[in-house]
Amino acid sequence: MGRSPCCEKAHTNKGAWTKEEDQRLIGYIKAHGEGCWRSLPKAAGLLRCGKSCRLRWMNYLRPDLKRGNFTDDDDELIIKLHALLGNKWSLIAGQLPGRTDNEIKNYWNTHIKRKLLNRGMDPHTHRPISTASGLTASTTAPVFPSSPAPASRLASAPFAFQSSTVSFARPSPSDDGHSSSGGSSDAPRCPDLNLDLDLDLSMSLPSSPPKTAPPAKSTPTSHQQQGICLCYHLGVRDGEACTCKTASPAGPRVFRFLRPLEEGQYI
DNA sequence: AATTGTTCCAACCGCGTCTGG
DNA sequence: GCCAGACGCGGTTGGAACAAT
């Protein structure tokens, strides 16, 4: 019952893109816009599969991409968003204009994980690493119950993060993470992560599902236009109190990210 | 200078979801 | 309602660049 390959692999290039391929892809998308990635390679004269073209465009060639280092504020925002959303890199990227999910994912794995570890925080749970009995925070009780979550923490969703101010009650980076064992044992249950997030209901939502958008998207990322319903994440089951889907008279919205928290997962 | 180890990131892969017939 | 095709996402990998010995 295997899925057929997305493209005819025997006739496609793999590996690093050449400048010529890049120019072909850029030229085609400038002329025709994004969309129909499957047929794009043939139309553009590229020996690549559609997925590869899409990835190259999204992660490297898009003109609105911001290259360069992340700032400390970016770091803290990513940490906060990760605490809230988990490994939803595309959602996180949507809050950082010009950044891609792949870039943030890589940055998380190479920099921020280490940064959190140096703070004595478990990068998965955002809780202090407990060295007692060798258990890490990930094996102990979660910070927040999976359902329902305290509604007061997130007064509303969909959201836009207005504030980039971050405060961790946790020791400052200068503590170098070496004090984690002493500080974690008596830590309160939800002690360390101050998700000081200002949520803004006025965040623009798409008036139509993304898939129906015109091919030539000019927006930085699709997620910046995409409504995000966190109600399910907060323990509100679809069909219960969540009214996101009916909030707009303009028509249906797509909330692809509705899903219950998994066991042991929390926000 | 050569070798080995580490870091980083672009790209690939497989799967879940969405959409149209 | 079902199915197949297409899209988008997250995890993983390959290899280039850099650092240490």
UniProtKB/TrEMBL annotation:
Keywords: DNA-binding, Nucleus, Repeat, Repressor, Transcription, Transcription regulation
Pfam annotation, one family: Myb_DNA-binding
Region (Disordered): 120-149, 166-223
Stretches assigned to the Myb-like domain: 9-61, 62-112
Location(s), subcellular: Nucleus
Occurrences of domain HTH myb-type (ranges): 9-61, 62-116
Record's compositionally biased regions (Low complexity): 130-149, 179-206
Taxonomy, superkingdom: Eukaryota
GO MF: transcription cis-regulatory region binding
SUPFAM superfamilies, per the entry: Homeodomain-like
One CC-aspect GO term: nucleus
PANTHER family for this protein: F14D16.11-RELATED (PTHR47994:SF5)
Protein name: Transcription repressor MYB4
Organism: Triticum urartu (Red wild einkorn)
